[in-house]
Amino acid sequence: MISASMVKELRETTGAGMLDCKKALEASNGNMEDAITWLREKGISKAAKKASRIAAEGLALTKVAGNRAIIVEVNSETDFVAKNEEFKELVSVIADTVLNSNVSSVEEANKLVHDGKTIEELIIEKTSTIGEKISFRRFEIITKEDSQVFGTYSHMGGKIATLTKLSSDEELAKDIAMQVAAMRPLYLDRDEVPADVLEKEKEILKEQAENEGLDKSKIDMIVNGRINKYYEEVCLVDQGFIKENKMKVNKYVESKGSKIISFVRYEVGEGMEKREENFADEVMKQING
User: Fold this and answer.
1) Which residues pair with 147 in a beta bridge?
2) Would you put residue 172 in left (φ > 0), alpha (ψ -120 to 50) or beta?
3) What is the pTM of this model?
4) Which domains, and CATH codes, for the chain?
């Protein structure tokens, strides 16, 4: 059974029309990812977004201490709490505590102690004080050599945080961190694109070309051309540089005598389910409460 909410979710994810979304879901037996693929193959949608909604609130933060840097995400239920100074302080404490440790998982990090209390206890305490569920979702620690540099960037008050590592040039590292925030690359370069992801993309592009009625003898050449466009979207080094759009990122970085080694990008709530509430019901709850 294809529900109206499924059609609505697919429409919001892809921008396709309601009827096309219904057809796509019917053809895919209700599987959201397959429905997105179906729409793309038919040329109805160019969206390659994940079906899952980006909606959880919270804060993403980066911190650097010498040759170590950390990026963390801590979630709250509402944007109001995400802007709360107590919440911001908690996220900062978590980042500092984890950065000064050798843990590799959130489970291990929750057992770390700050001022006599574990991170887990601090979160429970703040949850009680603030009155909203708070969860420490993820972190990544990056280390560098003395000659290398970090770049960090925070966008929309911590809705997006990025961390880059380059062979040299701190100012350039920050520019690349801004690039990562703005252009959402998924991979550093073409070698990082998983074989199965590339194969699926080629299949979709081939199906698109066939549905467009293009010359069958030229389809492989057309697909190769479109795959290059795909690389320009998802690979950082192949993107146009935001400050010098006529140049690719890799060429610009090379012109500065540097090299991108790695990057991490966190967008708060990406891949998480949205907590949906009827606004009118919520207002009435508060009036009657």
Assistant:
1) none
2) alpha
3) 0.74
4) 1-53 (1.10.8.10), 57-184+261-267 (3.30.479.20)
